[in-house]
Amino acid sequence: MLCVVCLFFACFSGNIDAYEYAVETVESTVETVESVGETFTKCAENDGYIMLADYNSGIIALENKSTGYTWYSSPPDTKNDSTASALIQNELLSSNTLRYGTPKKRTDSLARSNTSDCNFTVTAINDGVRITYDYSAGFHFPVDYVLMSDYLRASLKVSEIVETNPDNIATEVTVMGSFGASSGEDGYFVIPDGSGALVRFNSNTTSDTNAYSRTVYGSDVSAVPDYSTASAQQICLPAFGIVRGDNAMLVVASKGDSNACITAKIAGQSNSSYNLCNFTFILRNKDTYYMAGSSSDKFTVFETGDICADDIELRYYPISKKDADYIDIAEKYREYINITPKKSSPALYVNLYGGAEKKKSVSGIPVTMKQSATSYSQAVEILSGLKSKGADNIVASYVNWTDYSMENKIDTSAEPSYTLGYRRDFSRLKEFADENNISLYPAVHNRDFISGNGYNLSHACIRASGAYSRIVSYDRAYGIPDGRLKNKSLVSPKYFSKIYSETALNYSSRQISGIFPQYLTSSLYGDYSRNKISRFQAMQYTTDTLESLSESLDILADCANAYALPYVSHITDMPLSSGKYDIFSEDVPFMQIVLHGVVPYATVINSSPNPTETLLKAVAVGSMPCYDIIAEETDVLKNTELDLYYYARSYGTAEKYALIKPIFENISESTITGYESDGITITTTYSNGTIIVTDLDRQTINFNGKEIYMGEE
Question: Tell me, what's the pLDDT at 480?
Fold first, then answer.
């Protein structure tokens, strides 16, 4: 009967290929029913896997032919879960959930495919099935589930989402939200938050602990928050992992990543006995605002117009291996991104800070003036000193080295500031770098800006609420706006190409070969003005800009989202931990395992309250040291935008770099294949066979039988 349904829908759709495939499915039905049960039908098969579908519930399954292990999009025994209510059980059994907004009521609701909210039909297609969801709230769209050579693909074309109720608009969609759900077994989720973290199943997390939910590539900064939250790490990779004994699964958002969120819940938090992790895709942005004169009447508004998000595609890569773990997940993701390794010698990384605007009293009158923190000649002195102490290869960024950058204006000129010295002083700095194996990356900060230099509010982003996006400063103790610094606008992504093409021309005219485009590789946001730019479109503008820049300049990044990785030569602020959410069981170097031997990276050492321990942990995960440096006393930074670098006068010595340089010369082109830590001793294994043992208590690194002491003498 199930295959007759398959035939009917194939014929009805006029899809001859689907019809022919459905006929083949009919011929194999008896064998399939006997082998996998009476509710599942074999949809596709290749040398490694069998894809199955339950036509009654819309549940998808993927069977590994060599092991017999089967992954399900919903747990088969959901109805036996006494912890879950009937509604939660139906949500677990839903292969699709849709959140939609009702703008007139300023509310949103969640609809589930396995309830009366939705009717769905299952149709056979080549190597899989198409499930068409018809929600009673007024939404209709198909999702294709297809077996590829070594992964299962779920895809949704956003253009095929039909909205039939003018009162409702689609805002979020979750595809196979219960895939790999686990109950009562050992295992964990791998979350790429910061360096990476594990969420162990059924952990003893307290019941009041929040579930984890974070936006891939960081939140959309165009929606200016009312207060600053605690510092959090960013998700730079659109992927997560599931590990269960000898079986693991890498899940990648191969499309739609610009609008994706990762959510993880352990048993109890999910209102069931199941541990869950999934992607949710934002279709339309939303914002909040307050009525004039009121601080309590908060209104929600939704992005208007057609859906501008990217198409959605999820890839599920199964991994079968004895004692599979997060390293196998990372290796599979490295294989997926397939980036040509960047050749680079081990280096000491430094971030130099030129100057900033500061209010001073002149004859009793407050005047805003430029204040030097590290002049061009002082930069030469610092770099020369590091060279003399053993740093024979240096990668140096130089922030706020022009007048426009100190004034927070859009800066394309590459014109040195007289506050830091004469043009010949900057030329001497560049010459010194060229002569001494120093890669110099002068910075541009062209995201937040104050009107001037040809850019004003007409070039700024608009929030979904219709207000201008304003970047404000926040009180560090209370997290509320403090007005300490001037409010800045947010440049629209549509101007990236113009801004950075002009910048590249001017850099080249000054024989500058490297650029540090602050925020371009790490910040993703939309512009919701009349000519709307979604985060997906902004990502396209960004990658086009990075590709163009990389044709004439080497690119240094402090942080790099996945879409920026093919274009950057170095990453200088690699995190050593996750965001430390309560749901996390432990931190792991997932990001480092993916990138080591692919893109050189470093970690800022002197911003830590314990620089020696931070250096040890950095070396343990193949991260080279980076130091923030200013030449003047730190009191000159007070009441400037650089005052957060109060520690930058204390940056250690280059002798430490000289000690660890032989380690990096040995491992720089190798990948990490093993990592073990008991909190004190860290053992890292590399693909060339090198084993490095780091002892945090003794402050030593054991490399090739030699013990290196990294503490203070």
Answer: 61
